[in-house]
Amino acid sequence: MKDMFCFQCEQTAKGTGCEVKGVCGKTAPVAGLQDKLVGASIGLARAVTNTKATDATDDCIVKALFTTVTNVSFDDESLNAMVACIEKMKADLDPTAKSYDMTRLWEENEDIRSLKTLILLGVKGMASYAHHAAVLGYKDPVVNAFFYKALVAVGSDMGMAELLPLVLETGTVNLACMGLLDKANTETYGTPIPTVVTMTIEKGPFIIITGHDLRDLHLLLEQTKNKGINVYTHGEMLPTHAYPILKKYPQLKGNFGTAWQNQQKEFDNVPAPILFTTNCLMPVKDSYADRVFTTDVVQYPSMVHIGKDKDFTPVIEKALALGGYKEDQERTGINGGKTLMTGFGHGTVLSVADKVIAAVKAGDIKHFFLVGGCDGAKTGRNYYTEFVEKAPEESIILTLACGKYRFNDLDLGKIAGLPRLMDMGQCNDAYSAIQVAVALAGAFECDVNDLPLSMVLSWYEQKAVVILLTLLALGIKNILLGPSLPAFISPNVLKVLVDNYNIGPITTPEADLAKLLA
Ligand code: SF4
Fold first, then answer.
1. If residue 512 lies in a helix (H) or strand (E), which one and from where to where?
2. Model-level pTM?
């Protein structure tokens, strides 16, 4: 008998599934509790379907799904509490509604398991976006209703014919959810503007904030005002430098380090606390365990957790006690660049649409590549650096999410006054890329698939899965995906994706560039 089963992320053991312990550091008991949490959520979705959803059930489902995303929670105590809370909520609503035993899913026929897993992982990724929007006061009843529908389907006896459309519906609803989060972020913090971000860490006390939550950063900036503490973003927090309301805080100085998988090395010996607002949290090493703080859904045993009151005093006190570096530290990205540029959301790119269209018509821009997605530990991921370096000079590289740390410190120059490398933001800002693609297709009176635009994506966890479903739901074809194809896609489901969307694995930068530019 297996100790656990999980195959939800790209680094899954042997490319098939983690069965003893997660490669991510998740233990078998924690994996079991996360399965229990999803099973209880399916029970709650059944209860809601038989009765009525409330704000409390919506929040609970979203939070439960987000908690089971890779590298979010390693904490059995909080997972147990969430399971108990959902079980009670379910029993109060409908005592006849049963929780679902997730081993049934893991032991299903491989095609049914594959489709149900796509739906489940899709709603896990979407839940993270719904949660970030909800904390800013933005909710969409259609998005919330879909969580129940999807979970009921995962626990049902549906066949392939019923599940396939639901897979695509997951992608369609996620487009609305990413749109909701885009609205929440831009209405609250302004439209991102192109911004150069330094990687130099100034002397004196500082705090590193990582994850994705803009509200947590805003609250931290408010609480560190005039305290002589600087704040540095890490990982997916980099794009926050471009939001006008956040930019105005003088203590928001720059960006620390690179993508999530380097944290155990980069956080070692840093004289500053690190605040994790969402994934990706890796198992905490003893050498910096006294400096790690978590908040919201992120939890790790024995780490100080900042609760709902968002009182960051323990983080601030730790920063002051540690004192930071004695001298400024000049740091670089992985290619030696000293600054990064971000802030090319759809608002900015579409404001210069005339310039872009004119450059395409004049032949100055011959191709657009969207090279984005998650970063990860596999050595094969240097493909993305090489791909960007080898892309022709007459091409624009749009990027997003943390995969960009492979190349975002490169100076690729300009075309027609536009930077060749444009960082559109976090993973959810795939919404921006879609808006730009749709606008270009409109301007050239063609289908998105007929544009000189290629998508070369990297995936790691469940947010990338749901973004991929959104692109497929929009009918986007010829996507290249790497560094490896998901373990949860069965050969028959892969055939459906290849036949209908011509999706394929990355090969070598040279061969893929030749194919995409042919
Ligand atoms: Fe394994 Fe990934 Fe699941 Fe962690 S999240 S247990 S690494 S498949």
1. helix 509-517
2. 0.97
